[in-house]
User: Fold this.
Amino acid sequence: MPVLLYLSGIRHAARYGSNVLHEFEQRSFALLSELYQRHSPLAKLGPLLLHAFQREAGLATVRHATRNHDHLAWLERVTG
Assistant:
């Protein structure tokens, strides 16, 4: 649950143009990289970071590469 709250907070900071957003973005993607390297289940939340930081091109790439229909449906639900 804390991870989801963190992502929600980042999304709101992005909407309001927070001046610390860039630092959080760098740290968040560094953490995501570590999670992928450790094969952590939390790495599956990577698309939420892309959405939170408004990286639409990256999110489109993930959608295009996703072959699992359930995962694709989840992506659509959580990223709108």
In short: The chain has one domain: 2-79.
